[in-house]
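Hi P.,

Sorry for the delay on this. The queue was packed all week, but I finally got your sequence through. Input first:
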Amino acid sequence: MNAIINRYFTSHHLPLHRLVAAALLLLITIVLYSPRATAEEKPMNILFIMSDDHAATAIGSYRSRLAGIDPTPTIDQLAAQGTLFENAFATNSVCTPSRASILTGQYSHINGARNLGAKLEAARQHLPLELKKAGYDTAVIGKWHISSEPAAFDHYEVLHSQGHYTDPIFNVKGSKTSRSTEGWPNNTQQFKGHSTDVITDRSLKWLRERDQSKPFMLLHHFKAPHGPFENAARYNNYLADVDIPEPETLWNDGNWGSIATRGEDDSLRGLIGSSVSRRSHRSVGRGIVDKTLQGDAYTHASYQAYLKRYLRCVKGIDDNIKRLLDYLDQSGQAKNTIVIYTSDQGMMLGEHDFHDKRWMYEESMRMPLIIYHPQWSKQNKKPSRSRLVVDNTDYAPTLLALAGVSETPEYMQGSDFSAALRSEKPSANHQAVYYRYWMHMKHHSVPAHFGIRTEQYKLIFFYGQPESNSPEKIAKAAGKKVELAPLFASTPVAWEFYDMTSDPHETTNLYGDPKYGPIIANLKRQLQQMRTDIGENDSENFPHIQAAINAHWND
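Then the structure:
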């Protein structure tokens, strides 16, 4: 730069006042066009939008069987402008554990949120704490679903417990009530309307009134489309005359599953998992379809009712995201705000005759993830789709990097993948995801399991043991009499292996196929190493689980 200036002045024989003016003009040009002065170098706002149980299958841009219905035009437009991640996964497909991993960058056994109802004290709410250090104004509005107060945030308005769809009650930071005991969890306020609308109303209010001198990070968390589904009345007729496409595996399981998920000769099909059909006591159609229907007629009616209620909630989400994006445009903040859309996990929408989540099966563990960075998109640096394998422990490190934090804190186990948004290769190795579901046979009767997911393969180990091996505790947790506890104390142990390239819908369990023997052996080595690397030690904390692992590792 000095050489350029010297050449300019020595090659132009100008009067002193002309030289001074030229120098000032050159200085202004350098400042304006220096890379360090571009908008990209300014702290970017972060709008992190998360729904609850929104399967990627139910987003048009993920090109599933539901793409033709497309209840998500706004999300699809965001995907078209940003980057859609095809291989983003939850490490534990349950609301509280997934949210804790996003906030901490840690696996469930490290942050302590293995199950529903877990706590995460303010000192461990690492994402807002780190962003506040970086000068950000932080807020979480909507569903929280963690027992501890979100006290690390500058502002919060979070649904009370699971939250209601209609006229929801919020815990509001700084709110005063008439109760004798003030503060969390008694700092409640009730708002009129449907929760999806109300959450957006509250976020827009905060965005308008916040400290405009700081960049912001807003976690905007919808309750929808968590069941039992209750859409706003204006969507009652949406899809009323549409026949929703059904997954093939609702009707034909092929060679999917194992004795762990089906039992010998399908003896456990009535017990394992919540169904769309009548096979289980937790059929999604009970109470909402004609109870006189039988067989396939019942299954079809149950599926149609399930999906329409679900998709009406999804449509409400999409419309409210548009309200948020419109505000950013109108307020002039769109050019400086990174927008992220995701869900805390996926959802089984009839695949293998399941509803709910919890499973390591694809529709459950896959998280929709779309990231729009206005600067990189404008400069055409971003890929429209990425097949990079990431998980929700990577979210916090990536958000910190996007906010300009140069290094991921050592206590975070995930890694920054923001380079992928610029079509560059992340420095960390994003080759595989570790998954573990702990809540053996609770709620939706899903056996405990863990496994590894690479871009091409998936290996699942159903170890079939609860965290506690006390019959009394097992019975209490399962809501059963003690004499029934053995049914919930253990289920059959088995492995399942799927080639996700040739069999993306997991119709054929190839475990035991000699052709895949070397691949499976290698995946087992990777799985064992991952468990060691992340510090998961069942020998110390759950010896009865480790005994089951040891007994069946080489089956």
